[in-house]
Amino acid sequence: MDGAGTGVAEAVLTMESVDFVRDGGQILHGVDLTVRAGEHWALLGPNGAGKSTILSMCGAVNHPTRGTVRVLGHRLGRVDIQTLRRSIGHVNPRHPLRSPRTVLEVVLTGATGSTELVPRWTPSADTAARAEELIDRMGLRGIRDAKWPVLSQGERGRALIARALLPDPPLLLLDEPATGLDVAARERFLATVDWLHRDQPELTTVLVTHHLEELPASTTHALLVKDGAVLAAGEAEAVLTTERVSTCFDYPVAIERRNGRWRAYAGG
Fold first, then answer.
1. How far is residue 201's CA from residue 183's CA, in Å, rounded to a whole number?
2. Lowest-confidence segment of 11-25, 37-51, 173-187 by average pLDDT
3. Cβ contacts of 173 within 8 Å, gap of 6 or more
4. d(CA 66, CA 189)
5. Strand partners, 18
6. pTM for the full predicted model
7. pLDDT tens-digit map of 95-154
8. φ and ψ of 205, to 5 deg
């Protein structure tokens, strides 16, 4: 374990000199990143900067063209990917569910890592009890049996967090989780994430967004990505500055933090 006996938390995710090339175009250039247990990272950058590609490697979906990626102690390319993915929770607001499943059924698919319920699969008593517990904790008891098409985007987001947490993963990835939410739903969702960070201090999270207003107050670290390379990485207070964010987005913005939350506005 990294840092054993030194007080330094174990590394949950590392990227070393990572390049990624697709269709002849280089998307990532020499990315280095270390995420430790219990840290809550935000990945920010303009469209096309490479955030989603980095997150895909965190989730063991893509492999680097060059360099090394280790997730939960396993090096990509030298581990059974399906087994590893079952240890990673993933919240994607564009969840491609096509059938009208209930909230409970959607949460239960977290046990099999599938979008739809697996035919002839029955959850164990422990799994079923865990699903019910998470539904309660996410404030979804009143809509437990409601079907996916009638849920609001905010309700879907909380259901997807419950789904991702069902197998009790040490790593949770949130891919633009506030997409499509109105202001009230966004604030409710971020309050849920803050509560989750307090309730499970050992959980490591990585959240991708374009907007500082979508960062939970419990964010501890940040990575700014520009043109496929790391512009800055480290503790959030040191990274999310007026100068660095303006450089990252090629636009003068001023950054302020109030009551733990960040805000960006023109005029940096």
1. 27
2. 173-187
3. 55, 58, 59, 88, 89, 90, 91, 205, 206, 207
4. 37
5. 31
6. 0.89
7. 888 889 999 999 999 988 888 888 888 999 999 999 999 999 888 999 999 999 999 988
8. -130, 150
Q: What topology does CATH give the domain 1-87+169-268?
A: Rossmann fold (3.40.50)
Q: Residue with structure tokens 């950058």?
A: 45
Domain limits, the chain: 1-87+169-268, 99-167
Sign of the Cα torsion 145, 149, 150, 156 reads positive
Q: Which two tokens stand for residue 229?
A: 């390379």
Beta-carbon count within 10 A of 209 CB = 19
Euclidean distance between CA atoms 158 and 164, whole angstroms: 10
Read off the tokens for 167: 């197998």
β-strand partners of 90: 173
Q: Which helix (H) or strand (E) holds 52?
A: helix 51-58
pLDDT beyond 60 at 2: no
Checking DSSP bridges between strand 229-235 and strand 221-226, what pairing results, if any?
A: antiparallel
- Tokens coding 252: 């003068």
